[in-house]
Amino acid sequence: MMTYATAIENAIRALSASNENDETIERLQTLAVAIAKRNTHKTSDAVKAKQAEKRATARTEVVNVVAPIVRKALTTEPATIKEIFERCKGLPEDFTASKVQYLLLHEMKDEVIKTESKTKPNTYHI
């Protein structure tokens, strides 16, 4: 399989042999340099660590706001995610039932009891 870089190199060679289209050759060389730069660019470990820390901080902030609301919606009676989500008042606008379920299963897993069912939706309670 031919890569874009190889195709560009072939085009440059072909145009150079015909001694035509100097402007096209210059554009192709610039494109070849850009592709090579894109292919060699790697994110450093420090940048990756900083991005991970930023995501973790943002996640913690969301959990600190949302978890108390979800805790109030949980009862000792088993309820589906849909029922729990409907009881949650004051969640951020972009918060969906799926996000509530993720929160219950990951961030609040030590507090919540999950009851699995093969024929019905899973239920959750405290």
State the gist of this model:
The protein is mainly alpha-helical and 126 residues long. Strands 1-2 form a two-stranded antiparallel sheet. The chain has 5 helices and 2 strands, in the order αααααββ.
Describe the structure.
- The chain folds into two domains: 4-40; 47-125, Arc Repressor Mutant, subunit A (Orthogonal Bundle), CATH 1.10.10.
- It is mainly alpha-helical and 126 residues long.
- The protein is built from five helices and two strands.
- Strand 1 and strand 2 form a beta hairpin.
- The protein has a two-stranded antiparallel ribbon with strand order 1-2.
- The termini are far apart.
- It has helices at 4-17, 22-40, 45-73, 81-87, 97-107, and strands at residues 113-115, 123-125.
- 63% of the residues lie in helices and 5% in strands.
- The longest helix has 29 residues, at 45-73.
